[in-house]
Amino acid sequence: MFKVSGRIEKIEEALKEKKYPGKIIIDVQGKKEPIIASEAVEVKAGEIKKVAVNKIEIHPNNILFISAYAKHQLGHTLSVGEEIPMPFDSKRIVEHAIFIAIKDGIVKKGDIIGNLIILHGE
Q1: Per-residue DSSP letters for the chain?
Q2: Cα(114)–Cα(80) distance, rounded to whole angstroms?
Q3: Are 66 and 116 in contact (CB under 8 A)?
Q4: 30 φ, ψ to 5°?
Q5: How far apart are CA 87 and CA 4, in angstroms?
């Protein structure tokens, strides 16, 4: 569970320094991580399913994009997340993907269902 301790002091310091919450510096460097199913899931065309995936660690302030190029013949990953969503400036762990099917079939364990593009931010 995320702890709030110390956050109020950081916010007060940022306001004193005239920094604005939400201000981000983006490093153009990043990396591409495959989104890999960690379970088999049966899908039908038009269905939206939650699929467990191999965990991907996201460092605080990193910005995520899902690659628009489809990686799986049965559908496309729309988003990723974890059981309890964490704040942007906290460490996050991708645990599942939301997958929309365009054909009937089975997403197999180990299938690449998308690509996550991670940009480093401060």
Answers
A1: ----TTHHHHHHHHHHTT--TT---EEEEEEEEEEEBSS-EEE-TT-EEEEEEEEEEE-TT-EEEE-SS--BTTEEEEEEE-SS---TTS-EEEEEEEEEESS-EEEPTT-EEEEEEEEEE-
A2: 10
A3: yes
A4: -160, -165
A5: 10
Instruction: In whole angstroms, give the CA distance from residue 122 to residue 97.
Output: 25
Q: Contact at 8 Å (CB) between 21 and 89?
A: no
**C-alpha 1: how far from its chain's center?**
18
Angular region, 12: left φ>0, alpha ψ -120 to 50, beta rest? alpha
4 versus 60: which is more confidently predicted?
60
> What pTM does this model have?
0.76
Q: Could you read off the pLDDT of 37-47 as tens digits, one per residue?
A: 999 999 999 99
Which has the closest alpha carbon to 32: 120, 114, 113, 115?
Answer: 115
